[in-house]
Amino acid sequence: MARRRPPESSPGLPRVTILATGGTISGAQPSRSSREYRPGLFSIKSLLAAAPGVDSLARLDAAEVASIGSQDMGERVWRTLAQRTQSALSDPAVAGVVITHGTDTMEETAYFLNLVVRSAKPAVLVGAMRPATAMSADGPMNLYNAVATAAHPASAGRGVLVVANDEIHFAREVAKTNTTQVGTFKSTHRGLAGLVSSGRIHFYGVPLRLHTAASGLAIPSGRPLPRVDIIYAHSGMGRELIDASVRAGARGLVIAGVGNGNMGARALAAAAAASRAGLAVVRSSRTGGGIVERNVEMDDDRLGFIASDELNPQKARILLMLGLARTQDPRLLQEMFYAY
């Protein structure tokens, strides 16, 4: 990987803040032939130096927030990212923010920021499926396109975005769908936010649910977010995992249900008992697409369950964590799933 000086941008360009967290985009292999790599080895300045022409897009201010693989992403870094993103976007001189991030949990961080950052300016997450030392590494073009998206005036008001493989995705819609391919990110419900080709932006629409500047959700100060566990449903499922989460102190459960958020009789009995005990229980689906509607296949009204609507289990968990910081009422929580 090239180790040139970071680009110096023209003072007449829009200003973009880049927050680096590590991930494959900054990873390195022990050798070109190796399939193994370590994330977070290259600095953000090195990544920018390897993206020729990025200095023609914006004036860049770059900072390292973390240097981790995104499998280790969690609430501590989320809070820091939210604060740093909010601070940057609140600066009148800043047009947008780019966050470099591992792809494994990028959709979760993007959706979290989409719910808690208060700004109409764009925040754009970007990563790579191939490490920086790989043949045909995808990181440099992804980063170039992410900066172009964050600097573009038309990106405003669209919430947090994810840029990869020449595509722009809304944070609420995007999901990682493949373990290794560069086209891993898909937006299965409402489609792409747009395309970005060598920095040229083509937007298709705007998000329909509440986000960023219009969001009423916030990170609670002085206390951690409520614990919410995801329980993966399967044939022959018992009640043991649900009971274990209750004993471990979870305040909410997301069931990654079969089909339309379904689960077997023993698991259903345990989920109903958890709901009666005051836990918030959300029915989502492990299928990767579709809507989980209320009172389909089971009586959510009677059981006190919440239907996840379009949210996959990992995003349903994030919304439930933030929702439980405000209320335990399943009726109000259900309205959040319709609103966000």
Shape: globular
Report the CATH superfamily of the largest domain: L-asparaginase, N-terminal domain
**Beta-sheet strand percentage?**
15-25%
Radius of gyration: 20 Å
What gap, in angstroms, lies between the N and C termini?
41 Å
| Secondary-structure arrangement, i.e. CATH architecture of the largest domain | 3-Layer(aba) Sandwich
Fraction in helix? 25-40%
Helix-strand topology string? EHEHEHEHEEEEEEEHEHEHEHH
Identify the CATH class of the largest domain. Answer: Alpha Beta
Biggest sheet layout: 8 strands, mixed
Count the E strands.
Answer: 14
Model regions low in confidence, pLDDT < 50 over at least 5 residues: 1-7
Plain-language structure description:
This protein has 340 residues and is an alpha/beta fold. It has two domains: 15-214, Rossmann fold (3-Layer(aba) Sandwich); 228-339, 3-Layer(aba) Sandwich (Rossmann fold), CATH 3.40.50.40. The chain has nine helices and 14 strands. An eight-stranded mixed beta sheet has the order 2-1-3-4-5-6-9-10, with helices on both faces. α4 (139-151) links the parallel β4 (123-126) and β5 (161-164). α3 (106-116) packs parallel to α8 (313-324) and α5 (240-248) packs parallel to α6. The longest helix is centred in the N-terminal third of the chain and has 15 residues, at 75-89. The relative contact order is 0.11.
Key features of this structure:
340 residues, alpha/beta, Rossmann fold, 2 domains, four-stranded parallel sheet, disordered N terminus
